[in-house]
Amino acid sequence: MPENHDVVIVGSGPLGLAAARRLAEKGAQVLVLEQGNAISDPPGSHFRNAERFANDRDSYLPAATGFLEFIDDTVPRDALPGAAVTRTVGGQGVIWTNLCPRGDAPWPAMSDEAWSERYGQAEGYLHVQADRLDRSIRQQRIGDALNGLVESSGRQATPLPVAGRYDQDGLLHFTGSIDILNGSSAGGKVTIRNARVNRIITEGHNVTGLETESGSIEAPQVIIAGGAIATPQLLHRSGIRPKALGRYLSYHPLAICQIVVAPEFCRESGVSDFEPRIQLRPGGGVEWYTIVLHDVSPFMPSGNDARVEGNRLVEIQSICPVDNEEHKRAIFHDDARVTFDVPLSQADLGRMAGAEKEARNIADLIGRIREGCDVTWMPFGFAHMTGTTRMSAEDDGTGVADYRGRVWGYDNLHLATNGLIPTRMAVNPTLTGVSLAIHVADGIAG
Ligand SMILES: Cc1cc2nc3c(=O)[nH]c(=O)nc-3n(C[C@H](O)[C@H](O)[C@H](O)COP(=O)(O)OP(=O)(O)OC[C@H]3O[C@@H](n4cnc5c(N)ncnc54)[C@H](O)[C@@H]3O)c2cc1C
User: Fold this and answer.
1) Average model confidence (pLDDT) for the chain?
2) Backbone dihedral region for residue 27 (phi beyond 0: left; psi -120 to 50: alpha; all else: beta)
3) Which of 92, 120, 311, 401 has the fewest C-beta atoms lying within 10 Å of its C-beta?
């Protein structure tokens, strides 16, 4: 029996489902193909909403990172030992930590007004808010101290938005990918089916279908939303190999430490405080992004600091952007392997040194580093890969897709991935990616 979908989307992560929702809202029947199985109940909901993590937050990160399939975690730094994919209903949008700042490096894919509108829509899809942070004593007092520290650069400590909603007990329900559809009447027009797409079938400038293990699926319009690694990998596997594929790769070297906060910044012992989330955005010559929050930690604290009251803790995360340069790249091999070659430049390394220095200054200002939780760089490539299928204004070899996410040279092949982001962005990318997915969907549905 012929199927009646108007658009087929490959990948059920937040970007795939955001595009699906937008298309369905405009009347399209959408089929989403996802190769992974569910790891949460209901499928596609946030893994972190399980009760055990509310009782023991530090067990979350080790459990969540168990769903990362590292490409090769034994390789040296420039070959990105942290690069990983997640195959599951909802993609990495069921294990992410939900921080949702607006982007800091826009490019002219849309006017400023259109960007702002798209960000607003994406915030609605993901239920992004910064509610209740004014109730946090650490938010207020640490925020004031940070403002004193960064005043000369013109930066400011501001609340960091998060994707989630509070229940009546004040517990944060983290937005998972499926909540994007649940928040909309469009869900009835979207079907998610378990299937791995092995190849995009093309004829001239058109995609005619998608090849899966159980046969091919006809596809009037196609969006590949497989993440920043698997999306270009699928294009390459299908013989779609524009010059920019995998090149201009950027990602975030990410350092984290945990701080025992001095008592004067905290609520009195035994009285619970709302968890702080503070951001210091890039600006005034500073090119990295610093976050101070109490969320999740990868550390095993030791010695006298093995046990510290939660009210007295924060983490500092330093997020450093890497310049988009043509030679920094993912390499797709004919045997289906992907490897990386991303040598960091002096400018990239300079940002990392500056960000680490700032983290240590903040630690000294508000307390001291917890024993066993000193500044640690996460495996390189772990966080926020972008640029691998970048957008460009012209089909001049510097981009894979146009400013509507349509692959150059194809009429009905579109992308929705952070890989489209062509600029050096310092902040977490998902909100920008979801904004782009909406923009791409609008380009198809009109
Ligand atoms: C631990 C962690 C914390 C994070 N925290 C944050 C944060 O706080 N803020 C932020 O902005 N970002 C964060 N991120 C990043 C965020 O999760 C990603 O930006 C986001 O999930 C990307 O969405 P996506 O839809 O493009 O891809 P993904 O979420 O990777 O989903 C892609 C899906 O496509 C499927 N797929 C791929 N190829 C095929 C194929 N051939 N056939 C069928 N299916 C296929 C995959 O199985 C996968 O399920 C975090 C990531 C991790 C791992």
Assistant:
1) 96
2) left
3) 120
* Ligand 1 pocket check for 82: Cβ under 6 Å: no
Specify whether the CB–CB gap between 10 and 226 falls below 8 A. yes
Cα of 88 vs centre of ligand 1, distance in Å, is 9
Burial level of 420, CB count in 10 A (0-12/13-18/19+)? buried
Q: On the CB side of 351, how many CA atoms lie within 13 Å of its CA?
A: 25
DSSP letter assigned to residue 112? H
Most ligand 1 atoms within 8 A of CB, residue of 418, 430, 435 to mutate: 430
The answer to whether 288 touches 320, Cβ cutoff 8 Å, is: yes
CA 353–ligand 1 middle distance (angstroms): 28
pLDDT, tens digit (0-9, with 9 covering 90-100), for 167-218 = 888 889 999 999 999 978 888 899 999 999 999 999 999 999 999 999 999 9
Nearest CA to ligand 1 atom 9: 99
- Whether the pTM exceeds 0.70: the reply is yes
pLDDT in tens, 25-65: 999 999 999 999 999 999 999 999 998 998 888 899 999 99
